[in-house]
Specification:
The two termini are about 40 Å apart. It contains 5 helices and 19 strands. The chain is mainly beta and about 350 residues long. The longest helix is centred in the N-terminal third of the chain and has 19 residues. The protein folds into 3 domains: about 90 residues, no CATH class; about 100 residues, no CATH class; about 100 residues, Beta Barrel (Thrombin, subunit H), CATH 2.40.10.410. About 30% of the residues are buried. It is flat, with a radius of gyration of 26 Å. Pfam families: LysM. It comes from Alkalilimnicola ehrlichii. InterPro entries: Bact_Kbp, LysM, LysM_dom_sf. This is LysM domain-containing protein.
Length: about 350
């Protein structure tokens, strides 16, 4: 059965589409090559070459002769090449084995931790593993600090504190001290998504009992009676994810700013009411839209007609941590002020 005459032009367009997308992805005035510097991020480098940094996976060319070609290190050279007529970015790695430094695609073992991160880690570090999302019952039933050894402010590395509710049969010796923070609610359903458990410090169990004796090993702020004790989080964070677009359509809202302010700008950490249950993954880039205001039109034929202004694109965020029903994201670009309840969508 032959394709119809109407179908043939459509198939031809599909065949040309990757080339069109690849060519359009390049930023005007892009460099032909760039030497990666210490302190760079993958987002920074993507932004040098591409109009939209989240298109990186579509244009990245894996050099088969390099170990871990998806990782980029200071000193690597990112070059623009053409494969079958399509623009591709590839990496060349320094060879320092001889007296002359030359570029070659040789295999070189590198520590993954030495690779440049996708986004600035300093901006998100407190929210990677220390900040937790817990339901109210878990927080209420968690062990807690009942008092300090004296009446001084608790918080130094040698302070002794007493806790209750610890499992005497548990092998856990290291605990995180957390404090219940704001409750996050889904603005669509008004249902609670959990409480932010703010990391206060760390403690080591010295002696079981009721109360148990613990020593504070590290503190970010004053430790207070009533602060909760949770098993220390040993989960490692992978900072080498790639920016990309969600595989499904995402429609959500910013429900909180994690540094406690209402106005949002570049490098603000925000929570959105969409998580893994909605198809959101670490590395997903979402566009932020400032909610359009409702105004009164007093100039038309109908007096005082209410008009809903359209949402305006205000920036982009990248998701760096996901939960079932919400995610944390870092605002990477802001061209106007943003606030909670602004919309997030596929870019």
């Amino acid at each position: 059965m032959r394709p119809s005459k109407l179908l043939l032009p459509f198939l031809a367009l599909l065949l040309c589409l990757p080339l069109i997308v690849g060519a359009d992805a390049l930023r005007q005035g892009h460099p032909e090559r760039y030497v990666v510097q210490r302190g760079d991020t993958l987002w920074d480098i993507s932004n040098r070459f591409l109009r939209s940094p989240w298109l990186w996976p579509e244009i990245w060319y894996h050099n088969p002769e390099i170990e871990n070609p998806h990782l980029i290190y200071p000193g690597d050279v990112i070059s623009l090449i053409y494969v079958d007529g399509e623009p591709r970015l590839t990496v060349q790695r320094e060879d320092r084995s001889g007296p002359t430094v030359r570029l070659s695609p040789r295999v070189r073992e590198e520590s993954i931790s030495a690779a440049i991160p996708t986004i600035p880690l300093d901006a998100i570090r407190p929210f990677l593993t220390e900040t937790r999302l817990l339901d109210g019952r878990t927080l209420a039933n968690a062990p807690y600090i009942v008092a300090g050894a004296d009446e001084r402010v608790m918080g130094s590395g040698t302070d002794t504190v007493y806790g209750r509710g610890l499992d005497p049969d548990a092998d856990t010796r290291r605990y995180a001290i957390v404090r219940r923070g704001d409750e996050l609610r889904d603005p669509d359903t008004r249902r609670s998504l959990g409480y932010i458990a703010t990391h206060v410090g760390d403690a080591h169990l010295e002696k079981q009992g009721d109360p148990a004796t613990l020593s504070i090993t590290r503190s970010n702020r004053e430790v207070l009676p009533g602060d909760r004790l949770l098993e220390a989080n040993e989960t490692a964070f992978n900072s080498n994810f790639h920016p990309d677009v969600p595989a499904t359509d995402v429609e959500g809202q910013i429900i909180a700013v994690m540094d406690g302010v209402n106005q949002i700008g570049q490098y603000s950490v925000v929570a959105i009411n969409r998580g893994t249950e909605h198809g959101v993954e670490v590395g997903n880039v979402l566009a932020i839209y400032k909610a359009g205001q409702t105004v009164r039109d007093t100039f038309g034929g109908r007096r005082s007609q209410r008009v809903q202004l359209p949402d305006e694109r205000a920036g982009e965020l990248i998701v760096f941590r996901t939960f079932d029903e919400l995610s944390f994201g870092l605002v990477m670009h802001a061209n106007r002020a943003m606030h909670t309840l602004d919309a997030v969508r596929n870019p």
